[in-house]
Amino acid sequence: MSNSGIQITDLFGKRRGNKPPSAGDAKSYYFLAVIVLGVVGLWLVLSMYYTVQPEERAVVKRFGAVIKIADPGLHFKAPFGIDDVEFVATERVLKQEFGFRTAGLEGDRTQYNTQGFLDESLMLSGDLNMVDVEWVVQFRIADPMKFLYGMREPIRALRDISESVMRRAVGNRLGSEVLTTARVEISNIARDEIQQAMERYDTGIQVVTVELQDVVPPAAVQPAFNEVNEARQERERMINEATKQANQVIPRAKGEAARTIAEAEGYANERVNGALGETARFRSIIAEYRQAPEVTRTRMFLETIDQVIPKVGSVVVVESGGGSPLPLLRLRDAQPNKEKQQ
After folding, report:
1. Is the dihedral of CA 123, 126, 129, 131 positive or negative?
2. What are the residue ranges spanned by the domains of the chain?
3. DSSP for 196-228?
4. What residues are paired with 65 via a beta bridge?
5. At 198, is the pLDDT very low, low, confident or very high (cuts 50, 70, 90)?
6. CATH assignment, 113-217
7. pLDDT one-digit tens code per residue, 235-270
C-alpha cells in the first residue's frame, strides 16, 4: 500500500499512517486485551463447576459418553464443552393426567380443564356401556441413565402404556362395577401392570400410584344414570331400614320366647317336684300306717281337724226338742288369737 495519502482506520476510529502508534493507542490495546482475557477467564471458571439440587441427580457425559452420575452438591467438570451435564429430577414425584388437565389455581381451589380430552377418557366396559374415566399416574425417575438413554420418549411411552392398561382393566368389568365398587381394584391392577411394562422397556420410571379421579357415564346419559343411582340408593336405604327393624324385633321375640320357655320349665319343675314330694309324703304315711294303723289314723284325723277348724266361722249345738242354741266353740274368737300368736 503506497504513502499517497491512503490511510487505514483502526478499531477506535483513529486514522493510522506510516508513523508508529502512540502511547494512547498502546493503552487502548492493553485495556481491550484485559477485557477479553477477563471474559474468557470468567467463562472458563463458570464452565468448570455445576450445582446439583437436593431433588436432582446429574448425568455427566465426556465427549458424549457417560462417565458418572453426580449426587446433590457442588461438583467440577472439564471446561470448553468437554464435559456435558444433564439434570434429572429423581426425588420429585411427577404426574401424568388423562382425560383432563390442570388449568391452574383460582383462589384456594385448583381448576381443571376437561374439554377436548374425550379420546383419552371415553372407554367401553365389559357390558358394552360407555364410561368416562379420568385418572392420574404419579411416578418418579428411579434411574436417570435409563430414563435419558433407555428409550427415545419415555414419557410418551408411559402415557401410551397407561391408556392401554386402563382400557383393558375397564373393559374386563361391568360398567356398574367401574362406577362403584371396582375403582380401587382397577387402580391397583393398572399400577402393577404399568410398572411391569416400564421395567420391561428399561425406562427407569417407577410408578408410585394410579388414582382414578372422576368416573362417570357420558354427559348424554347422565340424567338417566342419576335416576338409576337414586333408585339404587333408595333400595339400599330401605334394605338398611328393614335390617335395622329385623335386628330390633328378632332379638326381642327371641327374648320373649326364652322367657316363656323358662317360665314353663320352672312351672314344670315346680309341679314335678311338688308331685314327687307328695308321693314321698304319701309313701312315708303308708309305711307308718302299716306299722301302726290306729295311731296313724288318729294323727291324720287330728291334723285334718287342725287345718279345717280355723276355717269354720261358728259351731253351735241345738237340742232336738228346741231351745236356745248353745255355743260349743268360740272359734271366731280363738282364730284371731291364734293368728296373733303366729
Report:
1. negative
2. 8-88, 113-217, 307-341
3. HHHHHTT--EEEEEEEEEEEE--GGGHHHHHHH
4. 62
5. very high
6. 3.30.479.30
7. 999 999 999 999 999 999 999 999 999 999 999 999
